[in-house]
Amino acid sequence: MLKSVSVNSGDTQFIPLDNGWAGTVQRGKVLPATWVELNMAGTAWGDVSLQQGCDGGATLSSTTGGTTQGFSDNINENQDIPAAAFFNPSTQGSPCWGTGQCTTSATNVLDTTMGNYWAPRAANAAATDYIIGKLGGQTKALQKAFIGTADWNTTPQVTSTNNCMAVTFY
Fold first, then answer.
1. What are the residues whose beta carbons fall under 8 Å from the beta carbon of 10, sequence distance 6 or more?
2. β-pairing, 30-31 with 102-103?
3. Are strands 44-49 and 165-169 parallel, antiparallel or unpaired?
4. Would you tell me which of 38, 52, 100, 163 could form a disulfide with 46, CB atoms 3.0–4.6 Å apart?
């Protein structure tokens, strides 16, 4: 199921997802992007992921009093970012791939931290190092978001017993 929903800055929108739905939510329609990964089966669970890139901060919160994960800073807009950490739309991929996934033309998006499934490339070490540093070092960073090849053992999942989550993009 692919849904495209427009929400104005500062507004809130309820978007129902079928029981058992699993997938990603992102700002806009292009990659690289900050993802919120969700699984709405039984007790819903999810996380903020920077594996496919970072186009700004995002948080995921349980609506049943559980945890919140993510970060609100737009770490992709700082002046101290090394040029090598950015996705370069002029040299790193075609506008759209056979899967229908398109890449951004923006120049302020941090590149993949694990390699892209949609445009096979290796992880960007400069992006990974920068993100980990900005989010407080490896231990703190992995508590906020999936980065690189982190797994569920290092990045805690947000859970919700009523299958309702709050996603915020900054």
1. none
2. parallel
3. unpaired
4. 38
Read out DSSP for 64-79? SS--EEEE-S-GGG-T
The pTM of the full predicted model, rounded to 2 decimals, is 0.88
- Where b means 16+ CB within 10 Å and e means fewer, 42-81 reads eebbbbbbbbbbbbbbbbbbbeeebeebbbeebbbeeeeb
Contact 67, 59 (CB under 8 A): no
Query: Are the C-beta atoms of residues 49 and 26 closer than 8 Å to each other?
Result: no
| Cα–Cα distance list, 62 to 12, 73, 133, 153, 158 (Å) | 16, 20, 26, 19, 6
